[in-house]
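Predict the holo structure. Ligand: S-adenosylmethionine.
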Amino acid sequence: MEVTADGCPVEVYLLLPAAGEPEIVHGALAPGASILELGCGAGRVTHPLVALGHPVVAVDDSAAMLAHVRASTVCARIGELDLGRTFNAVLLGSHLINTAVDGDRSAMLAAARRHLGPSGRLIVEWHPPSWFDSVGSGQGGAFGEVGVVLSDVVREGDLLSATVRYSARGRSWSQEFTCRCLELETVLTSADLVFDRWLTADRTWFTARARGGG
Ligand SMILES: C[S@@+](CC[C@H](N)C(=O)[O-])C[C@H]1O[C@@H](n2cnc3c(N)ncnc32)[C@H](O)[C@@H]1O
């Protein structure tokens, strides 16, 4: 079984359907806007974005994930990425910004920043503070044919650790993770970015732009 460096089972990401993410991203952008997708996985969001007319460059550090992506791909750590070009939008989804490793977050945001065109937008999916307050063991649901259940939720300061268990086709996988509750303005300012707007009413998606950008 292939598992990424951050513990994502590749088979699970091949079975999980998109759940509205491509439409949120598409709705925030001009038709045909170019997108740099950071942490694309197996292309769950990439493929619908391409179908919606966006040229996407999809980045992941898992070759096993990228083998399934039908778009232009780059196998790299996000923080080390330097493609020497900019995009209309940089997509940082899947709550990657909530990493507990502050240096990784800074490096990811710096990479996003250097790939943003003058009027480009960074599109982020994050866990807002309200999620940290409300999330608990036993929560989950069905996503396509994949059952998802959270367990072993432990809070310690601004960190939250948990295990997510996936089940499908008579098999199961589990992934442990730790994430950090963030003060958004501080995080964006330190990356030379400014908040732009919320994309969803639950404030799990937002856009940011380069400070001084259009
Ligand atoms: C939770 S999965 C989500 C995949 C995809 N965004 C989706 O929604 O289906 C996170 C992906 O990000 C990748 N990833 C995490 N941290 C990364 C990093 N620092 N550099 C490159 N890829 C990373 C993992 O390999 C994995 O494929």
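The chain has seven helices and eleven strands. Residues 47 and 70 are 7 Å apart (CA to CA).
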